[in-house]
C-alpha cells in the first residue's frame, strides 16, 4: 500500500552551465520512509539533496513538501530548512561554541525557544546519540564520529519532518562509521523520514525501504534494496555494484 507522500519531486531539471545535472527527476518519499540514494561520483546526488532543501534552485518541475511547493525566500525558507534537516559529510559545527550551544543555537534563533527549554531539549537529544556527557566540551575535543552525532542531534532539535544525509560517514575513520550508522538505524526504526546518500551498502540493505540509483543526472533505478542488490536491471547499476561490492 502506498504511504502518504512527504517529499515529491516532479519532472525536476537543473543545469550547471552546459551540464544537465538533474534530468527529469521524479521521486516520492513517503512519510516514515528511508530512501538510500547511491550512484557514481558526479551523478547529481548532492545536488538532488540540496534542491530538496532549496540550497539549489531548479529550472523546471516542482518539489513539494506535504503537497506544498517549497518556499522561495525569507522566513518560510528558514522554516523549510528546519523542517527538512540536512546532515553533511563535513559536520559544520561552530568551533568556538560548546556542544550544548551548537545544538541549542538554532532552536533559539529559528524555533524561538527560550535558552533553558532549548538546552533541556539539547541534552535529551545528546543523550539519545550517546553524548550527553560531552555537552560542555568544544567540537575539537570530540572525535569525528562524535561530531557527526552532534550534527545529527542538532538537526533533530528542530523537530524536522525529514532528514537528508549527504555521505554522512565519508569523512570518518573506519572505526567511527558504525557509531554514526547505528544512530541513523535507530532514527529509521523510530519512523523518521530519511533520504540518505551513502556508499554504505550494509546500511542500505538493512535500513532502506527503497534504493534510488542515480547516474548522469537521472534516476536509473528506484526499487527495494532486496530487488536492487540481487537483481539490478540496468548495466549502469550492475557496473557500479561490481565495483563497490
Ligand atoms: P554527486 O553528489 O553525485 O557526486 P553532485 O551533485 O555533487 O554529484 O555534482 C553533479 C555534477 O554537477 C558534477 O559534475 C559536479 O562537478 C557538478 N556541480 C556540482 N555543483 C556545482 C556547481 N555549484 N557549479 C558547477 N558545477 C557543479
Ligand atoms: Mg555528493
TrEMBL record:
A GO molecular function held by the record: ATPase-coupled polar amino acid-transporter activity
Protein name: ABC-type polar-amino-acid transporter
EC number: 7.4.2.1
Pfam family, one: ABC_tran
Stored InterPro entries: AAA+_ATPase, ABC_ATPase_HisP-typ, ABC_transporter-like_ATP-bd, ABC_transporter-like_CS, MetN_ABC_transporter-like, P-loop_NTPase
Entry's localization field: Cell membrane
Enzyme class of the recorded protein, top EC level: translocase
UniProt keyword annotations, A-Z: Amino-acid transport, ATP-binding, Cell membrane, Membrane, Nucleotide-binding, Transport
Residues covered by the ABC transporter domain: 7-241
Signal peptide positions (record): none
Gene Ontology cellular-component terms listed: plasma membrane
CDD domains: ABC_HisP_GlnQ
Organism (species): Streptomyces olivochromogenes
Topology of this chain in the membrane: Peripheral membrane protein
Family: Belongs to the ABC transporter superfamily.
Catalytic activity: a polar amino acid(out) + ATP + H2O = a polar amino acid(in) + ADP + phosphate + H(+)
Lineage: superkingdom: Bacteria
Main location: membrane
Amino acid at each position: 500500500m502506498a504511504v502518504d507522500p512527504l517529499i515529491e519531486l516532479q519532472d525536476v531539471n537543473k543545469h550547471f552551465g552546459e551540464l544537465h545535472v538533474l534530468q527529469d527527476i521524479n521521486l516520492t518519499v513517503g512519510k516514515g520512509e528511508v530512501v538510500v540514494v547511491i550512484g557514481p561520483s558526479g551523478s547529481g546526488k548532492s545536488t538532488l539533496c540540496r534542491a530538496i532543501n532549496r540550497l539549489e534552485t531548479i529550472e523546471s518541475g516542482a518539489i513539494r513538501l506535504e503537497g506544498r511547493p517549497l518556499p522561495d525566500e525569507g522566513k518560510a525558507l528558514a522554516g523549510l530548512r528546519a523542517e527538512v534537516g540536512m546532515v553533511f559529510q563535513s559536520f559544520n559545527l561552530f568551533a568556538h561554541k560548546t556542544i550544548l550551544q551548537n545544538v541549542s543555537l538554532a532552536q533559539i534563533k529559528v524555533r524561538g525557544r527560550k535558552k533553558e527549554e532549548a538546552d533541556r531539549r539539547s541534552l535529551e537529544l545528546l543523550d539519545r546519540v550517546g553524548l550527553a556527557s560531552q555537552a560542555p566540551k568544544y567540537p575539537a575535543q570530540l572525535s569525528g564520529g562524535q561530531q557527526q552525532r552532534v550534527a545529527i542531534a542538532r538537526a533533530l532539535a528542530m523537530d524536522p519532518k525529514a532528514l537528508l544525509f549527504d555521505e554522512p560517514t565519508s569523512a570518518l575513520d573506519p572505526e567511527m562509521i558504525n557509531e554514526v550508522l547505528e544512530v541513523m538505524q535507530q532514527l529509521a526504526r523510530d519512523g523518521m523520514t530519511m533520504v540518505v546518500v551513502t556508499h554504505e551498502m550494509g546500511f542500505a540493505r538493512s535500513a532502506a525501504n527503497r534504493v534510488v540509483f542515480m547516474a548522469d543526472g537521472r534516476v536509473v533505478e528506484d526499487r527495494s534494496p532486496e530487488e536492487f542488490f540481487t537483481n539490478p536491471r540496468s548495466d549502469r547499476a550492475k557496473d557500479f555494484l561490481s565495483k563497490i561490492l
